[in-house]
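Lab notebook: predicted structure, single chain.

Context: the supervisor wants predicted structures on file for every construct in the current expression panel, including those that have not yet been purified. This is the next one on the list. No modifications to the sequence; it matches the entry in the shared construct table.
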Amino acid sequence: MKKSWLALALLAAQPAMANDIVQWWDMSVTALHGNDYDLAASDRQTTVTFETAGAWIYGDWFAFQDVTYFNGSNLSENDTTYGEISTRLSASKISGQSIDFGPITDLSWAFMLEEGEGPVTSFLYGIGMDIAVPYFTYFNINTYRRDALSSGNLSDGWQVTPAFRMDFPVGNSNIIFDGYIDWVFSADNQGYEENFHFNPQVKYDLGAVIFGEHNKNQLFVGVEYDYWQNKYGVKGVDQNTYSVIAKYHF
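Prediction complete. Output recorded below exactly as produced.
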């Protein structure tokens, strides 16, 4: 299996900076299993995802590394890797003044790097907005310009990515509904279709029930839905599936 430098970055993601620079941070690992995945070595997959997220005095970050195993594949290489590193530099934090108007609570310079096996490496840059939406714990929208960095990658163009989270208290526990949408449009290259990827999760805080309230936000179980129209920019390939997940926060 190819070793990704994104994986190494995630393993070293615990901030080495002073506490007054890092405002909060989190690391987690997720196990996911599902069927009916298109354009893969096997339609049945098991994925282990390592994630880190946090905020510091000038912005925030999010990164993940997927290691996917193709169950039942007859190929010699029956696994693959894919990861993303994204960061945003907050105009409010950098200027020291609140940049807000209407429902918009902050503006950011947004950057992201995608990397994996195959022609998928891309650099994205643009503008992020944090938006106050009733009943949402957070809601932000990043608008990016996509530049392909690997030969054969035709995904140059534009992308809009909303990300969101909602929390629903249930007794002494919690249900979380969160996820993202990637809408890639106005591609520069013929043959790469506009595509729409909706990937939400519904998770129940099982750790709070099993281990007590002092272990809230640690162990989650749930389901992930995956709808991807024109997956990878391939016209007519519409993935529509779900997976069961378990997630542990360190």
